[in-house]
Fold each of these.
Amino acid sequence: MAAPRSPSNDARATAGQRVHGPSAPATVTARRGGIPPSTPPRRPTSPEPASHGAADWRTATSTGPASEHRGAGRRPDPPPVAVIDDGLVADYVHRIGELVDARLTQARRAGMTTRAAERGALVEETITAVLVAARQQAAADGRPALAPTVEDVIRRRARAARAELGPLGPVLTATHRWSDVEVNGAVNMICTERASGTRLEAASPFASDEEVWEWAAGQAALAGRRFDEANPSVRFRLPNGVRVHAVGRVTSLTHLDCRLFTPALDTLMGLAGTGMCGPDVVALLAATAALRVPFGLVISGGTGAGKTTLLRAWANATPTDRALERVVVVEDEAELFLDRTRWRNLVEFETREANVDGRGEYAMERYLTADLRRQTPGRVLLGELRPDGGVLPLLLAAGQGIAHGVAATIHAPSAVDVVARLRTYAAIGSRTVPEAVVLETIAATVDLVIHVAQLPAGRVVTSIREIGEHRAGTVTSAELWRWHPRAGRTVRTELDLSETLTAKLATVTDPDQFRARRPAAATGGSW
């Protein structure tokens, strides 16, 4: 690693232009909604006229020499602001990192344990020492020192680089505000507001695409995954639960897709408070979560609609006196994060990809077929049903009574499409089963399908459909709750619950509270 450039290069960091780059202060006017990485993204300001190119907005607010035609009553120009040389800043940040790593290595060899607070103090001490040395060297050489603004940027980026989550730390820890964070190299960053689903644009917190790649590679390594030339795509989970997908080298930029987890939204009442569902739907879900008889639940919806969030809340609605019941969570990527202090007999399975030698893979189908039944589960929660061979083993396990409760999520545009998706996914796998058997198994194991969607008002339950019988090559169903735009929530339809579902609910509550709401003269729907 080369040491920081000679202070002679610092002349470029003196008066002339406004500060640019991904860590520029919020005074920068950017069509990309530029913000400092130490603050959460804000709604971008109005873009400049379309005639301005990419370079135009960078210099549109620059201040230069005073105009010769300035009027007598005109205000003087503001003082010049330093321009940032990203390469110079990166050199200083890297040098600071090297010194910090050297001190930490020395401490480990001496058998000393460095706590987080001590590491933070070490970073601050090193930053100060490097900047003071730079000032002294500039004075000795008779050259301009680093501008204060440049020093501030170095401090900010050095702190971010040494943080647990690096430059993305501020946004990836703001789980109350953001649901998704997408980074497109050093170009920009798109953050999705959790409450409204609105996407906001901000400057990328990384100075170069190489920094994005190195960040992903480092975080993936901590999670036991590899991200390199031989493996240009990787999925992993950060220590705070954020799920990350990274891809690079095979794309023009290195892209990060981060899904943030919100522990606060882990109860049905909490979701009702956000407007996801009404009290009648909460009562229905709570009753089904308390069932001790065989019951199958599928939560459908699009990406980011809240399927996993609702599944977690439904699981947490299980009565606390069943804390010792064996609960098995099966996921391709861990995201449910049930609380082990509550679930004392919890099994969490996460699929394992093959290593660089093509070995070590452990697929969901293998676990569901070979291991699940031997763990005597009382309830099985499957994070997401996918066309990976796991659907049929799960349906068969539920049909054989291996678990009295099975719940899963699936990507589908509507509740009506779920049966077709299950039928298609069940055909993919190592075993071939006649379609009639698959449909009959679906009808026998799935009781309710709950559909969630992202609407302008937020994430809401838009439909609840009961799965009926297998008749003449099809599976019947009835919509019990339907989205009512004027009411702004799902409302009870005129269709009755089946006798089977009514009998199951009667084991834990009064099913009359879920009766169809219809005029007295109406006859209702039939199955």
Amino acid sequence: MNAALSSINENGDAEALFEYARKQAELFESVVCDYPQAIRNIKAEYGFHFDQPGYKKVAETDRFFLYQVLPSDKKVAVRNNGKPVLLIPPYVLGENILCFLPGEQKSYAHAYANQGVPTYIRVVKDIATTPAVQDMTGEDDVRDTRTFCEKIKADHGRALTLNGYCQGGFFATLAMLSGELDGLVDSLITCVSPLDGTRSVALAEFMQNIPDKYTELGYAIKNLPNGKPVVNGKIMSWVYKLKSIETEAPLVNFYRDLAMFEKFMESGKQVGKTALAINYWLLYEQVDMPVAITKISFDSYAIPVDKDGTLPIRLFGRQLNFKRLAEKNIEMLICVAAADDLVDRAAAVAACDYIDAEVTVFPKGHAAIATSWSHPESQCALHTTFGDNYRGPVRFHLDLEARQDQAARMTLTAGAAAGKPAASPKKVSAKSAATVKKPVRKPAAKPKAATKAKAAVKPKAAVKSNVVEKPKTVAKVETTGVPGSNVPASNRKTSATRVAAKTSTRKPAAARAVAAKSVAERTAAGKVAKPVVDKGIKTVKSTTEK
């Protein structure tokens, strides 16, 4: 503007001003008209499109659909015997944040699927047309999650990883603490999830500075045409938008958009799809919420977790405590964003005060894990290890799967060595989850199988001797433990070792004759032990006469 006015003053030529005004008019038109239209046009590429190939509806309840997300990489096949993952998206921001721009390889869900992981996502039905969703409680949320977990485990024969994003991570944690998913889920991943909302200092300070009536849940409730009350999704989503006003004013943002488009116009480039998709998410992804579900989230921001780890929410009449995750040997990964202005790190890692959990810190803000870092070639790709030895959520899942598979193979090998029939792959996979931390020891081998295993063993040189072995030699063989036995090493007496003991003391005919004469002579002197039979197995007990 100053340059245009300077040109007019010096040259008396208004053409420069007119040219400047024309460019500004084009710029304003781009920001006010073209940009919003471009945001609306990105809808075809943004988010899940379950009516298109690449997705499979697996199950549904009155409140949710369960879809399997198939690999978008055609070179990748789903490992049907692999460890499955169930994604729980946030209620308020919807599921599409987890499938941001799949065509641009920016999709949290496909970051799993393109590694061959059986990937599933729980999607809530339309609250406006589904009374069961309108009336949904926290218990309903958990029951439906359990139903889906049972289906997934039945299909793949092994326990799941439950992975929740933002608010979805909080509800996934509640489900785990309720005990309803015991035996179905053995690992939990939360991403930018407020596990104790009272520790989110930035949001708490923001809420304290607005009028009280706007912080009451009743302010956000509206009635649907059928008279059912729900929480207005637009108001809930405003929390995220209004929170950003602390650092960015609307007028400043508008000027920023003008400057951005001015650069694009000068270079002939178009606005990136990522910027368009983020704006589409913020503008159009507002979902109304059930009152009871919103009340649970509201309480988590109003009432802190107790000093013993007990949460301020009850489900099925039970107390929920973080320590239950440790009691059930649930492996947990907590992902946080370094520049998150919605969920502070302290709120996200609250469980670490009560249990051991792995923490991964991603750069950037609240949505970056699902957007920027979901690209497989990004600096902090989800299937890699990056930074200070941080594991992305997909890497964490794959490592756990590999460890469980290795444990299953070791169990299978040990069983085969002991003569046990090999289990089918699916059954082995189903058992593998229980063997990750504390491998289950197998029962002792049967005598018949053990005899076959020892058939190829040649008699030791000691057999050819004419000297009878002393009783202590037999006792030494008999107390040798067998790897994999469920009996303590000091007490292990398996069929294999007993048969080996009998085989090792068997003498040729000539040796037995000499031995018999020797025994007869010594028996007369009362100095030899008499064999005693114990349940058909030859052992030696001292019966020396005084």
